[in-house]
Amino acid sequence: MTGITSASTGRSVRGWLLSVPYTPPTMVSLPPEEVYRKIVATGVKAEGLGARILGLGAFTSVVGDAGITVAQRLPIPVTTGDSYTITVAVQALREAGEQMGRPIRNATVAVVGATGAIGKTCAEILSREAGELILVGRREDALHAVKERCKGPAHVTISTRVNAIYKADLILTVTSAVHEIIEPQHLKPGAVVCDVARPRDVSRAVAEQRDDVLVIEGGMVEVPGAVDFGFNFGFPPGKAYACMAETIALALEGRYEDYTVGKDISAAQADEIGEIATRHGFKLAGFRSFEKPVSDQHIDEVRQVMVYTQVIASVFTPPYEVSPMEVTPSPDIFAVLLFLFFVLFIALS
Length: 349
Ligand SMILES: NC(=O)c1ccc[n+]([C@@H]2O[C@H](COP(=O)([O-])OP(=O)(O)OC[C@H]3O[C@@H](n4cnc5c(N)ncnc54)[C@H](OP(=O)(O)O)[C@@H]3O)[C@@H](O)[C@H]2O)c1
Known about the structure:
Elements: E1 2-5, E2 12-19, H1 24-29, H2 32-49, E3 53-56, H3 68-73, E4 78-79, H4 82-99, E5 108-112, H5 117-126, E6 132-136, H6 140-149, E7 155-159, E8 170-173, E9 192-195, H7 204-209, E10 214-217, E11 220-222, E12 225-228, E13 239-241, H8 242-253, H9 267-280, E14 283-284, E15 288-289, E16 292-293, H10 296-315, H11 333-336, E17 342-348
Parallel strand pairs: 3-4, 5-6, 5-8, 6-7, 8-9, 9-10
Antiparallel strand pairs: 1-2, 1-12, 2-17, 3-17, 11-13, 11-14, 15-16
Helix pairs in contact: 4-5, 4-8, 4-9, 8-9
Bound molecules: NADP nicotinamide-adenine-dinucleotide phosphate.
NADP nicotinamide-adenine-dinucleotide phosphate (NAP) is lined by residues 58-59, 61-62, 66, 81-82, 85, 113, 115-119, 137-139, 142, 174-177, 181, 196-198, 218-219, 241-243, 263, 325-326.
């Protein structure tokens, strides 16, 4: 990667994208030790190239203890990118809500995957801003613990049922499920969903059947400078995932240290990396939905359809019975999930 230049200092960094050739289903099915070995071997290669910090992208940060073991075994520092992912996800949900006429302060907000590394800190931050907050996860005891962390004024409830999100105006979903878990019937008219998960949590059927809801991908960021990633990972030129951006921002800041490792991330750390990234010129890069850009016109159309469907929905109750959060994987999704799993390395040029 070349051309990355800080907007505040003019400092440039270069880096490498290296792939760990495992899909998410493979990573979750293998013993963590085997996946660690592969990631560490890639990290050693990165160090040989001259990298001074290693970023763990996508599922390489989800496996096992989220970077702690990998950091212990490598001579260069490691970060998962989760702190900046949290900041950008909340920002994207907030901005999409505003554009849909659903400001977060009046909204019922749901976090799906609320017991995860990213989800629990998003919940903590959203409890400062939302009217009501619904935490959705698989384990009730863990949900209670996350609820304890939510010190903001929002009224917080928990649920182990994904259909609890039907009440929500704004939904942030960030599970590490390897299959889709949010289906068209789970969403009320006008709902805004920020899907941070990779592979995604929201079923493609939502895009096909629900033109009255807005689904955006969380975490696309504009990187400062005339950036050439040297590889097309599916984003427009100059745009990166927030987890990649965290590693780049730390390199621009000269913070060659283990930054985000492990599954306990403080809201203060998410705030700090947000401040560092903004200072160097990173910013939210508009919205995308199912690999396509979301235009203002599309948002207007969703709002119009929402008004009609809300009238109809007010007459009927939700058309389904409660179902467990865990759903059976649909086999075809695995074909779609030939997703890039990368580790990102940045070094001073
Ligand atoms: N867009 C980006 O830039 C970016 C950056 C980093 C990560 N990510 C993505 O964010 C997601 C979450 O990462 P994380 O580090 O927070 O993961 P994590 O710590 O493993 O947490 C995952 C959460 O998902 C839940 N979960 C796992 N499998 C599930 C299933 N089958 N059904 C329902 N819930 C399930 C977990 O529940 P339990 O607590 O019960 O296990 C937990 O709440 C991943 O998809 C990752 O690839 C995206």
